[in-house]
Amino acid sequence: MIPRYSRPEMASIWDPATKFRIWFEIEAHACDALAELGVIPKEAAKTIWERGGKAEFDVARIDEIEREVKHDVIAFLTHLSEFVGEDSRFVHQGMTSSDVLDTCLNVQLTRAADLLLKDLDALLAAIKKRAFEHKDTITIGRSHGIHAEPTTFGLKMAQAYVEFERCKERMLAARKEIATCAISGAVGTFANIDPQVEEHVAKAMGLEPEPVSTQVIPRDRHAMFFATLGVIASCIERLATEVRHLQRTEVLEAEEYFSEGQKGSSAMPHKRNPVLTENLTGLARLVRGMALPAMENVALWHERDISHSSVERMIGPDATVTLDFALVRLTGVIENLLVYPERMQENMDKLGGLVFSQRVLLALTQKGASREDAYRFVQRNAMPVWRGEGNFLELLKADKEVSAKLSDAELDELFDIGYHTKHVDTIFKRVFGKA
Amino acid sequence: MIPRYSRPEMASIWDPATKFRIWFEIEAHACDALAELGVIPKEAAKTIWERGGKAEFDVARIDEIEREVKHDVIAFLTHLSEFVGEDSRFVHQGMTSSDVLDTCLNVQLTRAADLLLKDLDALLAAIKKRAFEHKDTITIGRSHGIHAEPTTFGLKMAQAYVEFERCKERMLAARKEIATCAISGAVGTFANIDPQVEEHVAKAMGLEPEPVSTQVIPRDRHAMFFATLGVIASCIERLATEVRHLQRTEVLEAEEYFSEGQKGSSAMPHKRNPVLTENLTGLARLVRGMALPAMENVALWHERDISHSSVERMIGPDATVTLDFALVRLTGVIENLLVYPERMQENMDKLGGLVFSQRVLLALTQKGASREDAYRFVQRNAMPVWRGEGNFLELLKADKEVSAKLSDAELDELFDIGYHTKHVDTIFKRVFGKA
Amino acid sequence: MIPRYSRPEMASIWDPATKFRIWFEIEAHACDALAELGVIPKEAAKTIWERGGKAEFDVARIDEIEREVKHDVIAFLTHLSEFVGEDSRFVHQGMTSSDVLDTCLNVQLTRAADLLLKDLDALLAAIKKRAFEHKDTITIGRSHGIHAEPTTFGLKMAQAYVEFERCKERMLAARKEIATCAISGAVGTFANIDPQVEEHVAKAMGLEPEPVSTQVIPRDRHAMFFATLGVIASCIERLATEVRHLQRTEVLEAEEYFSEGQKGSSAMPHKRNPVLTENLTGLARLVRGMALPAMENVALWHERDISHSSVERMIGPDATVTLDFALVRLTGVIENLLVYPERMQENMDKLGGLVFSQRVLLALTQKGASREDAYRFVQRNAMPVWRGEGNFLELLKADKEVSAKLSDAELDELFDIGYHTKHVDTIFKRVFGKA
Amino acid sequence: MIPRYSRPEMASIWDPATKFRIWFEIEAHACDALAELGVIPKEAAKTIWERGGKAEFDVARIDEIEREVKHDVIAFLTHLSEFVGEDSRFVHQGMTSSDVLDTCLNVQLTRAADLLLKDLDALLAAIKKRAFEHKDTITIGRSHGIHAEPTTFGLKMAQAYVEFERCKERMLAARKEIATCAISGAVGTFANIDPQVEEHVAKAMGLEPEPVSTQVIPRDRHAMFFATLGVIASCIERLATEVRHLQRTEVLEAEEYFSEGQKGSSAMPHKRNPVLTENLTGLARLVRGMALPAMENVALWHERDISHSSVERMIGPDATVTLDFALVRLTGVIENLLVYPERMQENMDKLGGLVFSQRVLLALTQKGASREDAYRFVQRNAMPVWRGEGNFLELLKADKEVSAKLSDAELDELFDIGYHTKHVDTIFKRVFGKA
Fold first, then answer.
1. Which chain C residues are Cβ-neighbours of A272 within 8 angstroms?
2. Contact, A106 vs A181, CB < 8 A?
3. Domain range holding C140?
4. Residue B301 belongs to a domain with what CATH number?
5. Which residues contact A292 (CB under 8 A, 6 or more apart)?
6. What is the mean pLDDT of residues B218-242?
7. Has residue C331 been placed in a domain?
C-alpha cells in the first residue's frame, strides 16, 4: 500500500483500528446469539456491547500484548477485557480465531467492494457525460493504429461506458462471492458452537453464512474476487491506453487536463505528458499480477493451512487500495480530459479522403463495375493522394471511367460523413437507453 | 492442445471444420437478414443455405487458397463460392472479417462453456454421491497438516460440492460474458450494414448483440472468461491436493482407483501413486497461467489491433480443452475413489485421544477450574500420551484433580464423537437441501 | 504448438521421433558405460548400438504398445527389443524411467536453446545492419509519447542491439541451467547404478551430471529457463511496440515491409497494418505467461511428484517454438523495415523548433539571466509557436531581451542538430566496438 | 511492504532517507566530474560535498516542497540548496531527473542484492551443517508421496544445498543485470552532459555505465532481476513444502522448532503447526507473482514512458523485503529444525520391507528367473505384507521358489540399507567437495 497511490477512504478499511472494531462487532454479535441460546448470561452480552462499544481500542497496546502472547486474537481479547471487565470471559466462547479473522476479512473486502462500486458509478457518470457531449464529434476510427473509417468520440466513450458497466456487474458478483461469514469452529463442524450463532452474526454484519467452512472460509471466493479486480484493472488500462495514444504529439486529439500553473507547461508547451494514464497502465499491471497468488491460495491443505494469510495481508489492501485509486484517477482524467475536435478533423483530413476508398469501391461494384475494374479505378486515384498529390474526391470526379459510373453528386454522397454516423443514435440507445 | 489431455467432445469445437461450419452459418443467417431488408435477393439467401448447408468444406483446400490470398475469410468465401455458385457474391455484403471471426470465436467459447457446465454437473453428481455415502464416516480434520478435531469424510465432500457449485455459477456468468455477436463493420458504426442484421444473426446463433463493438468484440469479456477458468482450475487443484494427501503412504485414507491389472500393482503393492491427481495439479497450473495473457489482451489499441489473436489461437483451445479434460478426470477420480474408513479411524486413534484435549480444557473451565489450572491438568496428562505412554481418557480419569471436576461419565461424554458430528445434518441441509 | 506460429527447425525437436531417438542414445550410451563396468557384456552394448542405431522407430507402434502397458518408457523398450533382439534385456539395467525422460527433456531444451541462440545472432546481425545504416538518421526522441529531444534512428537500433545482446547472455545462462543429465535411480541414490554411468552419458550427450537428482532433475532449473524465455519475449514486445508506434498513420516513420502484390495495398494505400509486430506482441504475452506455471513446478513433493509433467508437455514445446518463431519473425521485420527519414524530419519540424526550448533556457541562464527571466523569455516565444503562429528560432531572434543575451549566431547554434548527435559515435563504440 | 514480513536491514534500503542520501551522492559525484571537465568550479563541487555530506535531509520538508512544485527531484534540490547555499546552482547541471532516479533505483537494487546474497550464504551454511549432521540418517525417499527407496536426510539437505547454490549464482547474475548507471540526459544522447560524467559516477557508485540508456535504464534488466527473485522464492517454497510434509501428524519426521514457552504447546502437544513454512509458501506466491508486472514493464513506449514507475514503487521494496525476510526465516527453520531419526526409521519399517521389493525382483532376474516368474514370486509375498500379515524378508525366505534362487544370506544382503547409501559420499563430494 503506497501512500502515493492510496485514498484515505479505502486505506482506512485496512487500518488496524477498523479491524479491531470489526472484531469487536463480530464477538459482540456472537455474544448476543449465545445469550439468546442461553449459553452466556444476557446481562453479559449487554455489558460487552456497552463497554466495548464505547471503548477506544489502543492498537499499540494490542501489539504489545501480541508480542507477549504471540497470538493476535488473544491479544485483542485481553485488551478488550481491560474495558469490559469480568464479563469478558463470556466473549469468544466456543469460537476459534479464524471465525473472527475470516469473517472480518470478508467484511473488509465487502466494504472495499462497496467503495469500488461507488467509484465505478462515478466513472460511469463521467464517461456518460463526455459521451453525450461528443456524441457527434467526428474522429477517425483506427484499426492497427492505422486510419480505418470515421466514428465519433462519443462512440469511443460509449464503448468505455458499457465496458465499465460490465465491470460493475462483475464487481457486484465479486462482492457477493466474499460477503460470507463463518462461525463454525476448529474444523467447521460447529462442535463447540451452535450454527445459529453464525446465522445471527452473518445477518448482523450484512453477510451470508458460509455453507461449509473448515475453520476457514474457502479461498476460491477470494480468488474470484481478486481475479475480478484484475479484469477491471485491465479495462482501466484500455481506456488509459486510448488517452495515451490520443495525446501523443503527432495525434494530439485529446489531453489530460494540465493546469496553467503546472511547472514547465509554457516554456515547453508541447511537453504535456500523459503521466496520469501512464501511471494507470502501471497500476493495472500490479492489480492484475495479484490474481495469480490469489488463485494459488485456493488449494489449502486439508481443512486449512495458513499459507494464504501472508498473501492476503499484502494483496488484500494493495489490490483494493490500488484499484480504488486507479478508478478515481481515471474518473478525474475523463472528467477533465481536454478534447480537440478540430484536431480530430485535421487528422482525418490528412489522408485526403482515402478513408472513403472502401465505400467508393463498393459503390462502383454496385453500379456494375467488376471487382477488378473497380479496384483498378480506385487504386489509380488513391496512389497520388497517398503521395500527397491531390484530393481523393476531386481525382475521382476527374476520372472518366469512375464518372461514367458515379455522378459527382453520387461521389459527394459517398464522402458524406453522415453515412458513418447514421447509427450513432442506435448504439447510444443500446448503451444509455436514449440517444 | 495436447492429445493426451484432450477429449474429442471439446477438441472438436476447435476443429477447423467446426469453425468453417460456424462461419457459414453466420454468413447465411446474415444473408437471411439482408434479404429481409431487401439488400440482397431472397432467392439468393435461399440458395446459399441450400447449397452451403449441404457442402462438405474442404479444410485443405481452404488452406491452399489462404496461402495464395493471404486472408482466411476470403479463402473461405472463395471455397464457399465453389459450392454456391454465382449467388455467392451476395455473401458477406457490408461485413468485415472480424464480424465473422469474433462471432465465431464466441460461438465456440459458448459451446465450450456448455460442455464445461455439463462436466461440472457430472462432477457435482459424483461428489454428492460420495458425500452421502460417507456422511457419517469419521475422519480427523487437519489444520496445518496436524490433527485438529474430528469431522466426517462426507463433510469434506460437501465442502467440495458447494465449491464446485460456485464454480458452476461462475461458469454460467462466464458463458454469459462471451455469448455475444458483432456484425458491425470496420469500426463498429454499422456504416455498411444495418444493425438488424446483427440482431438477426445473434438470435439465430443463440447470442446477444454486442452493445458496442469496434470491429472487434471487446476483450474484457474474454479476460473474464479465462480468469473464471483459472479459478475453476484452482478448485480442481484443491480437491486433487486433498486426494494426494490422503493417499500418501503414512495416511492412506483414500486412494485413486487402481485396477488389478495395472502393471506393478502387486509386486510393490504400496506403490500406487496418485498420478491422476498429481496430473490435475499440473493442469491447474496451466489453465491458471492463461488468465494473465487474456487480461493483457484487453487493452487493444484504439478500435482494435490484432495482438489478441495469437493469444486466443493458443489459449482458446488449450484452456477449454485442458479444463474439460481435468473436470472429467477429476469426476472419474471421485467416482472411483477408494475410501478407507478403518484407516481413518486408526489414524485418528494414533494420538490416543489428544484431539479431545481442547474440549476437556473447556469442560474443566466450565466446571469452575481457572484457565491456568485447567491448562495444567490437561497438560500433565497430555504429555505422556504424546510420548506414547498411555491413553488420554484413562489418564484423565485417573487424575484426581480432574476427576474432582469431571466424573468418568462426563469424561466419556467429552470423548464422544457424536459431539463433533451433531451438526453434519445441518450442514448437509445447507448444501444439498436434505440430510 | 500452433502450426501457424511454428518453424520446422524447432518443432522437430519436439517430434516424438526425435524424442525416441534421444531415448535410444541415452540408453545406448548407458549400455556402453555398463559394459565398461562389466555389468553387461560389451558385445551386447555393441549390438544395441548397431541395431538400434539403424532402427526406424515407429511412433504409432510405440503408442499402441503404450496403450496396452500404460507406460511410455516400457513401450519404447518393447519396441526397441523388436530391433535389437535378445540383447535388449541389457538395456535400461538399473535405471528408472525418469533417468531417460528427464535427461531427454534437457537434451531437447538444450537443442532448443541452441536454436534460440542462433535466432538471436541473426536478429542481432539484422539490428546491427540497420543501426549503422541509420546511425545518423535524425529522428525525434519521445518521452511519454511526446516529442522530447532529437536522437537518431541508429541509436534506437543500438539500444535494441544491446538489449538483445543481454538476451543472448541470459539465453546462454539458461542453456547452462538445463544442460544436465541424471542417471541416478528411484530416489537419486545410485543404489542400482554406478554414478560413472551418469558421468559417461552426460559427457556423451553434451551435458553435465546433475549434482543431486532425486529421481527427477530439480525443476528450479526449468523455472529459470522458462523465466528467461519470458524476459526475452518481453524484449521482443518492446521492439515490436516501437515499430507499431512508428507505423501508425500520424507518425509513419517506418513500416513493416509490404510486398506490392499484397492484397489491398493500393486501393487503400494507407492501410498497411503492422500485423507482424502486433502478432509479436501477442506471442510475447503467451511466452511470458508460461513462466508462472514453470515456477509453480519447482515445489514438487518430497523426492518427486509428477505434477510438473503435464505443464512441461505443454510449455516445453509451446514456449520454445513460439519464441523461436517470434525471434525469426522479428528478424524479418527489422531486416525489411521500411524506414522513412524524411518523414522523421517532417515530424520533428512540426513543432517549429520547440524541442530546442530547453536548450535555449539553459543558454539564457548561462548568459546570466535569472531562471525566472529565462523562463519568461522562452515561454512568450514558445506559446505562439505552439499555436502554430511562427517559427521558434525566428521569434527568439526577434525578441529583444533574448537577443540581448544571445546573438543570432549563438541562437542558430543552439538549434544545431549536431549538438544532439555529437556522442552518437561514443555510444556506437560502446555497443559495437566501433562507430 | 508489510512490517510483519520485513527486516530493518532490507527495509532501510527503501527508506526515503536512504534514497535522498543516494540522490545526493549521485549529484555530488556528478559535480566532481563536471568540475574536472571544467563545467563547474572545483570549489563548488567541494562545497557541495562538504555541506551536503553533513546535511541531515528532512524527508517531511522535501515532501512539503514536492506538494508545491509537484516534482520530486526539484523538491530535493531545493532542500539541498538550503544546506549548500549558492553553489547549489551547480548541482544537477545538464542532468535529467531520470539520471538520478534510475541510477538510485539500481543502487538500491544492488544493495538489496548484496543483502540477499548474504542471506543465501547464511542459508547455505545452515543447510550444510544439517546435511553433514544427518549425512547417514536413514529415511525413506518418497515419489508421489509414496514410499519408494531409502535415502538419507543428509541427501535431502544436500539437494537443497545445491539448489540454493544455484540460486546464489542466479542472484549474482541478477545483481550484475541491475548494477548500472545512466547520466545521459533527456533521450540518452548526452546532449547536455559529457559521457565522462556518467563514467565517473558509475565508478564512484560501484556501477557500470549503461551502454545505451534513453532517459531511462532499459527495463529488461529489472524484469530479469525480479524474475530471478521469483525463481528463488519458488526454491524456498520447495524446501518449506518438504518441512510441512515432514511435520504432518502421520509423518512427523521433523518439526519446526517450538519453544517450550510457546502457548498451547503442552495441552495439545501434537498441535505444533508448521506455521513458519506455511508462511514461506505464501510469501513465495507473492514474490513469484511480481515477476509478471516486471516483465510487462519492459515494453515502454519509444524512449520512455512512466508506466514502470508505479510498478517499481511497489515491487521494488515488496519483492526484495519479502524475499529477504523469507530467506532469513527459512535459515532459522533449518538451523533449528527438530529432526527425528527414530521416527524416520519407524515410518520406513511400517511397510515391512516392501520398499526392497524392486531390488528382490532384480536379484531374482539376475539369478536366472524370468521377469514373469520373478514378478509372481515377489507379488505373492508382497501382498500379505501389504495387508499387514507378516514381514517381507521372512516370507521370502520361507518361499521355496525364492529360496531356490536366493539364499537367506543373499536375501539379507538385499535388505541391507548400505546398498542404498553406498554413494552418499560420492554425492556429498560433488556437492560440498568433501564427504
1. 146
2. yes
3. 97-347
4. 1.20.200.10
5. B288, B289, B291, B292, C292, D285, D288, D289, D292
6. 98
7. yes
Task: Give the residue from B40, B184, B234, B348 with the most A CB atoms within 10 Å of its CB, the best one to mutate.
Answer: B234
Q: How far is A267 from chain B (nearest CA, A)?
A: 31
In a shared domain, residues C203 and C61 = no
pLDDT for B312 beyond 80: yes
Residue A30 lies in a domain: yes
Which residue in this structure is represented by grid cell 475453476? B232
Q: Are strands D138-143 and D146-152 parallel, antiparallel or unpaired?
A: antiparallel
The minimum CA-CA distance between A239 and chain B, rounded to whole Å, is: 8
The span from the CA of C291 to the CA of C313, in Å, is 14
Residues D145 and D253 in one domain: yes
Q: Which chain B residues are closer than 8 Å to C74 by Cβ?
A: 263
Say whether C98 is catalytic: no
Looking at the structure of chain A, the number of domains it has is: 3
Whether chain D has a CB inside 8 Å of the CB on A281: the answer is: yes
| B167 close contact with A: CB closer than 8 A | yes
Contact flag A383-C296 (C-beta cutoff 8 Å):
no
Q: Is C265 a catalytic residue?
A: yes
**D360 in the same domain as D341:** no
The x, y and z cell numbers of residue D119, run together, are 542471506
Q: Is the pLDDT of residue A265 over 50?
A: no
pLDDT at C370 over 90: no
Among B195, B235, B427, select the one facing A220 at the smallest CB separation.
B235
CATH number at residue B393: 1.10.40.30
User: In the prediction, which pLDDT does C386 show?
Assistant: 86
Kindly report which listed range (B371-375, C35-39, D16-20) carries the lowest average pLDDT score. B371-375
**Locus of grid cell 472518366:** A400
A partners (3+ CB pairs within 8 A) are B, C, D
**D282 touches A: beta carbon within 8 Å:** yes
Whether residue D124 is found in the same domain as residue D80:
no
Cβ of D187 and C149 within 8 Å?
yes
Does residue D162 sit within a domain?
yes
Residue C214 and residue C343 in one domain: yes
Q: What is the mean pLDDT of chain B?
A: 95
Q: Give me the pLDDT at residue A375, please.
A: 87
Residues D106 and D72 reside in one and the same domain? no
Cα dihedral angle (D354, D359, D365, D366), rounded to 10 degrees? -150
Strands C254-255 and C338-339, how do they pair?
Answer: antiparallel
Task: Please judge whether B144 and D273 are an interchain contact, meaning their C-beta atoms are less than 8 angstroms apart.
Answer: yes
| Cα torsion angle, A87, A93, A95, A96, sign | positive
pLDDT confidence bin for D27, thresholds 50/70/90: very high
Q: Which residue has the cell 525566428?
A: C394
**For residue A199, what are the contacts with CB-CB under 8 A and spacing of at least 6?**
A33, A209
At residue C358 the predicted structure's pLDDT band, cuts being 50, 70 and 90, is confident
Q: How far apart are CA D412 and CA B161, in angstroms?
A: 50
B357 interfaces chain D, CB cutoff of 8 Å = yes
Q: Is residue D421 part of a domain?
A: no
Stated pTM of the model: 0.97
Residues A379 and A336 in one domain: no
Q: How far apart are CA B299 and CA A285, in angstroms?
A: 11
